[in-house]
Amino acid sequence: MDLLPPLFVQVAMTFVLAIYMGYCRYNAVKVHEVKVRDIALRQPNWPEKVTRVGNAFHNQIETPILFYLLVVLLILTKQGDKVQLYLAWCYIAARLVHLTIHITSNRVFYRFLAFVISIIILMIMWGRFMATQL
Question: What domains are defined for the chain?
Fold first, then answer.
């Protein structure tokens, strides 16, 4: 099973979000919503929207690293099957929902629900992989 496409989508989501974060930060400085000196040392002085986008970006770096590692291990050990592929796409869908909620309404309950679903999927994927290695 080719597990690279869901991995590529996760990478693309991260890059697109990084570009969007840069755009939002640049515009916040450009229109004087924030002064460079007030954020130069990573002070939390960004406007709310910019903070949401930045937080969403950082979330794309945190738990997805376990997804990246797992996909590489599944490929190297030839353990990627249809179930892992299906779970990988479900994980990507949950991450996309989480990202979308984070940068739009930021409804914490729904964002948390999407996060929990993605973590459960990732745990199942890891559990299946570990079971084949014992």
Answer: 4-133 (1.20.120.550)
